[in-house]
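Appendix B, example 12.
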Amino acid sequence: MVDVLNRFGHLKTPPAGPFRFIALDVETAGKTIAGICQIGLCFVSNTGAVQTYSVLIEPEEPFEPFNTELHGISSDTVAGAGTFPEVYAALFDLLNTHSLVQHSTFDEKALTSACARYGLPMITSHWTNSVTVARQAWPALKGAGGHGLANLKKHLGLEFHHHDAGEDARASATVILRAEDVLGMPLSHLTIKRQLAFQFENRSGD
């Protein structure tokens, strides 16, 4: 397997929580949104410290040249990687007990489609769209490049490598943190207290 994960210094295993929230990003291999080939996570502590993790996935479908050119992942890259059910099972409890952040709704849709493809339960976490938050914090960008990560990177001076899942997850998390500074308040639903309560409710319902 070609080692593309550590070129950006991502962790090889997820760190210990709990976290204030987790930003999530996926890359896909080809024509279907369910064909996830990389999951990236950015873990944000209550102090605003961030840690990133990414994992390659064998998508069990062909790679399209356009996708590979975009993110640099190919069938050779994922040789020996786990399938979605294997990777998802290892991350399920972590994701299901934290609030999640995504930039647009693509990532949630991709996970939902992959779960449907393999007959797996979808996580029930609360999702926050950092595009929506960015629109509140920087309304002037509407019509001036928009609120996509590429334009936010330019406007906010963010440093990340677009279309690597771990890097994009970190960018999404940074957008949330920067937006909270601009808005002058934290997003009330992105709290460790809520996450722990959610985790406790899950356990009591077993």
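The chain has seven helices and six strands. The beta strands are 21-28, 36-44, 50-58, 82-83, 100-102, 127-129.
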